[in-house]
Amino acid sequence: MSSTKESQAELTMDYDRLKELKAFDDTKSGVKGLIDAGIVEIPRIFIRPPDELAEELNQGKSTLQVPVVDLSGIEVEDRRQKVVDEIREASEKWGFFQLINHGVPSSVLKEMIDGTRKFHEQDVELKKEYYSRDRTTRRVIYETDLHLFNSKTANWKDALNISMMVTGHIEPEEIPEVCRKEFFEFMNHIRKLGETLLDLLSEALGLKPDHLNAMECTKGQTLVCHYYPACPQPELTLGTDKHTDPDFLTILLQDQSGGLQVMHNNQWVDVEPIERGLVVNIGDFLQILSNRKFISVNHRVVANKVGPRISVVCFFTGVFEPPKMYGPIKELVSEEKPPVYKEFLVSDYITEFFSRPFDKSGLDLNRL
């Protein structure tokens, strides 16, 4: 029997996955709790299926670099056009780009990373107050894996999830005090940057600068503060499984650890951290609105023996309530380029996202 088949047999023998998932979830201590307990082998719920692990060995790894866009000087017409062209190319070919000179002070970035670390490294009993799987009534949730019970493999990370999807607003007292100040400072800057980027993306689509903002694409947001503890067996699991984002636009702040990868030309490409930089990616909703001119691509985070890795992700989700239909922008549709996707409600798309395995994209379900 091959070693892969042997490991498969070991995994299926005497293994009640649901029972182990519930036992882990009931600790409310997350992945960090496992590390604090001194584990040297990762639990089976985190081990990827043998076929995935075998495929990983054969998967090519690219040495290409994700495009870097310098946002400085966009008030000047010639310079702005150059930036719009660079964003268009990156959004069409990669669905990802890194941003420098974006206007968010480096002190704000550093404090947000530190605030995330402080939340996750505080006493576990204080964190447990926020531990929940109830997305309907709770807007601030500490969790370990949002698709824990839907996916084949649990992901090696913990997260603080702050949802402003419905109102675009949240009361200060709802945010954990340990990172409250840092959160509001960061969000003030990231909202403005999101609006600026949507102006530039509108122009890149050949539309008026205010087109996407007029559609309220930045109205709702969710901020997720990730904490990826060091992993004793990183080759067996992932920090975040491959996925596309159910939003218009994502802005990500990562520390200098690395680990984020994007799929490009059927190969994984490392998104190398840039000091004081931010990462931007196109979400599913913008692929739909642009009628597939811009692409929402698979990305993931690999696990690492060294940690923790810390990242903060802002998802711009548009209008959740009252219901608003989004679909391919009429200016981008013609006889030669008929609509590729049907219209959708943000609430329906996101509800569906939480009910399926993380690595299955909703774009296929929305195809005409």
TrEMBL record:
Coiled coil spans: none
Fe2OG dioxygenase domain residues: 218-318
Molecular functions (GO terms): 2-oxoglutarate-dependent dioxygenase activity; L-ascorbic acid binding; metal ion binding
InterPro entries: DIOX_N (IPR026992), IPNS-like_FE2OG_OXY (IPR044861), IPNS-like_sf (IPR027443), Oxoglu/Fe-dep_dioxygenase_dom (IPR005123)
Transmembrane regions listed in the UniProt entry: none
GO BP terms in the entry: coumarin biosynthetic process; response to molecule of fungal origin
Record key words, sorted: Iron, Metal-binding, Oxidoreductase, Vitamin C
Family membership noted in the UniProt record: Belongs to the iron/ascorbate-dependent oxidoreductase family.
Protein name in UniProt: Fe2OG dioxygenase domain-containing protein
Source organism: Anisodus tanguticus
